[in-house]
Amino acid sequence: MNIMRTAMLLAVMTALFMGVGFLIGGRGGMMIAFLVAAGMNLFSYWNSDKMVLRMYNAQEVDARTAPEYHGIVAQLAERAGLPMPRVYVIDSPQPNAFATGRNPQNAAVAASTGLLNALTYEEVAGVMAHELAHVQNRDTLTMTLTATLAGAISMLGNFAFLFGGNRENNNPIGVVGTIVAMIVAPLAAMLVQMAISRTREYSADRRGAEICGQPLALASALAKISGYAHQVPNWQAERNPATAHMFIINPLSGERMDNLFSTHPNTENRIAALQQMASEPGFGGLASTGRTQAARAGFRTGRSVPSTGPSHSPNRPPRGPWNR
User: How far apart are CA 264 and CA 89, in angstroms?
Assistant: First the structure.
């Protein structure tokens, strides 16, 4: 199913690329766009994860440089039956995180410094479990390819502004074609992003809660991240809006509603789904027990998992688990 979805995505994005090329330069422009798209598809398959990590200047960390953060990911990956992904930190004050990579054997997860400073130990675990769920569901290839190809289509639409009105470019539609290329192509690329983004977030929320055993911790993390996203800008994401759908919460400023133009489902709906999950057999009473289900299952990352009491509990680190 994921192979078919990725193949369909590449076909749609290639068609969009060719369509914009036709509007800009006629048949010649369409053929050039096809060759460029084919080359980009091949290049993106092998290198899109590196490109995205480079966009955000992500720095890789290990058990020595970030023992508890790295340890959380290691334990969660073991619980999920996944290979250990590469672990990165993004220097951004906005709390957020994403996963990338063409398959579980070549995956990477990244969290911002803002997330690691604002969330509790259990909340960080919930977020990283969500990202590992994307890896396990093989969403990361589709997400990362979409980010790179949608960005390319948007740039091609911008080129239409420079070259579309030139009568010598064999553009059969002229100025009208230029306007269509500038407006419709980036919008169409955005719609493709949204089509793959909304349902997969609910699925990753549920699987992530299963991996970490704490749906309410993930729900709490989503609420915090969403609140900060309204207040703290992510300038790297604003410069690279085609990557917005990769994050656990939309990092861009503007509308965040359950509508056609949202890259993510409504956060309140996601939280409600996790709260409902917490009441299911196997998760009931999670918030009221003295220890979390993860602790009962032996979840350890270098320090004992604290209780689910208030955030100021002396047994809980006041900030994220990267602080010594």
Answer: 22
